[in-house]
Please model this.
Amino acid sequence: MNKTLIIGGVAGGASCAARLRRLDETAEIVLLERGAYVSYANCGLPYYVGGVIRSRSALLVSTPEELRERFRIDVRTEHEALSIDRANKTVTVKDLKRGTTYTEAYDTLVIATGSSPLRPPIPGIDSPRIRSLWTVPDTDALKKLTETAASAVVVGGGFIGLEIAENLRHAGLHVALVEALDQVMAPLDFEMAQLLHEELRGQGVDLHLGDGVDAFADDGQGVTVRLKSGAALRADLVVLSIGVRPNSALARDCGLTLNARGGVVVDEHLRSADPSIYVVGDVIEVEDFVFGDRAMLALAGPANKQGRIAADNIAGGDEVYRGTQGTSVAKVFDLTAASTGANEKALIRRGLVKGEDYETLVVTQNHHAGYYPGAAPMLLKLLFSCDGKKIFGAQIVGREGVDKRIDDIAVALRLGAGPVALKELELAYAPPYSSAKDPVNMAGFVAENILNGLVRLADWNETETDPEAVVLDVREEEETVAYALPGAVNIPLGQLRARLGELDREARYIVFCAVGVRSYNAARILSQNGFAKVKVYPGGTRFYRSTHESEWELEGAPPAPAQEPDPTERSTSDMKQITLDCCGMQCPGPIMEVYKNICALSDGDQLEVSASDPGFAKDIVSWCRRTGNTLVSNERKDGAYVAVLRKGSGAAAASAKPVAVQDTPQGKTIIVFDGDMDKVLASFIIANGALAMGRPVTMFFTFWGLNALRKDRKQPIKKTAVERMFGAMLPRGARRLKLSKLNMGGMGTAMMRKIMKDKHIDSLEDLMKKAMENGVKLIACSMSMDVMGIRKEELIDGVEIGGVGAYLGDAEDSNVNLFI
Ligand code: FAD
Model:
């Protein structure tokens, strides 16, 4: 009789034991587990802490008794393997309950010891309030702490850290999350992770990205977490989730080969250098399925499959483990983030070049038919080889249906399909589940268009990397009220053919719409009309905003308390309250409906709008600000985004047009003559301060000060050679202004920007935006514009052009007048 000894009784070890019994009724199977539990659901632990999984026993998939009874496995919990003697084929075991040590012989040994969470030697880390979440006892301890805690800091934004953060919020704690990288969820590319950042902040998680922990200090009442940036966070408990290391000491000490990261090296049959020893799970190095080289990936699916394969081979089979592609999925509050294969960061690290070796695409599409209630958009990124033969990987972020789409692509990748094959997949369709062209099919269509040269997609940051390109926004004008792209030329798609003459055929274009469909149509019109340099911004303004807006606090903040309507104007009984259900409508549907409906209402009437499009929650904030309507509330209810608007702002007359600033005495006027960053910054700080005191502010920009008002993108307008030269020499927009002193070839300015960012001080661009949104009147001096060859189209939206008279008129009503 063959005796198999298995060390480790959870994912890999337990699945190996059970499979082996099914294959060989005569085998002697001994399973050693140092913990008190076997075969438990470690993936479910965070949800038990948060109270989502209520029953602790539900976590225990099989008990030792069940394994003994059903599978006749000699399960020994609280038995730790101390060492392996390969020559004599024995393992020294410690019975942790009795404190005794004994030797156990084996014919075949399986090492399935998993991994352990990292606890680096950070000062103060030994506090009992600083926990990891890995085992059932860890879970019990953490759950107990949460019962009396009000706040927590989670260190690490990987999938376990995010799951813990969500569950601690669920348990009612205030949660801060600290992540050393500039993004959470490392398997996603930076731009894809931005939606998660929005979601986390929107769910009340205080997110600290690009920051690490310097020290912990427990004063008996709580822990202070000191960050490298100098910030200090105070919490009742801390959860560390900063990665794992393989439990490979046993393997190392008995002479098995390890890689540089401590992973045990095995062959394709999962056998170690010693043919009597199989090794499975988190503790091994695996083949990277996409590239064929070696990798380490700690995931439950691979560990379970490896346990099964090892059992097959022990029972005389010839099973091969063909590698891990890293397919994973995680719930992050109301979003799901999933990935398979390699991300773009990994391709770049391997020296692959975009456009030569690989291509990427991003599509945004509803998870099921838009007309069926509850449709929610998902963002899908696909990476594939330029020869069209290989899918390198995919990432998806969305609210619904993400898991099924990532699995479709994971299967295609595993079976060696190219990207275009995705268009051929016949996927199940009915309106409540999908669309006739599923998002996965859509990725296949777009991949084909890219490979055939029918469309070129811009990178998510191409408006920065190619500042000379013209940003062409083909959305309807009404949509731009809710969100205007900085520096964009707006020509709605329906008008594009008729207005081609306004555009310069030689310029480079980045075409935008809300989600990327209209911009693709526009790009096709342009390309077939002699415009050779046209790119579509994939994912549209929705994607752009998630990757470019740091001011979630501004846009997503709860609305200011609404003023009561003036009772002298209309009695409340006259006021209408109407509801509008825009669920299922894709952007721009909801905002267009709001616009239509608000026009038909009278001052003081209320409109309650529900939408399933997450972008609506942001759009409605800026739309109300810009149209002078009042946002009474803006919240999530039963999976929908529900906004209540009151037409007008109380007594003020409202319209669906941008509001003008009211003139009252005690105004402040500022002449901005200089174009140095620090001076313009100072002028906007003063302007915003005056606004906060309720004073009307007029800023008059003349000569070099005009540079601050320029759009940061080149505009497709015809100029004389001298004007063009002048325009090229002057800084284009606030982002490009330099410090008046210590600029040091741009280094000083960059340092100043960094310091301001680290200290959470608004950038000049943010200050300008705030000032404009809050009603500062910006006047560009028409005479200086003429002299400097600056045209109206080159100035940011919302700037008035005026002569000195316009400025002096406001100066008359002011009691402060500054020249900067
Ligand atoms: P484990 O399942 O960890 O089992 C190893 C066992 O070996 C342990 O019980 C340990 O006590 C025992 N052991 C170690 N040394 C000895 C010794 N000397 N003697 C005796 N026993 C020993 N993966 C996913 O794919 N999806 C998820 O959603 C997911 N969520 C997770 C959430 C949490 C909180 C955690 C902790 C993990 C999660 N994982 C998830 C990862 C997944 O659980 C692991 O990849 C998987 O369990 C690894 O299996 P394994 O058999 O290698 O190790």
Remarks:
- The chain is about 30% helix and 25% strand.
- The pocket of flavin-adenine dinucleotide is lined by residues 7-13, 32-35, 42-43, 45-46, 80-81, 112-114, 133-134, 160, 247, 250, 281-283, 298-301, 303 (CB under 6 Å).
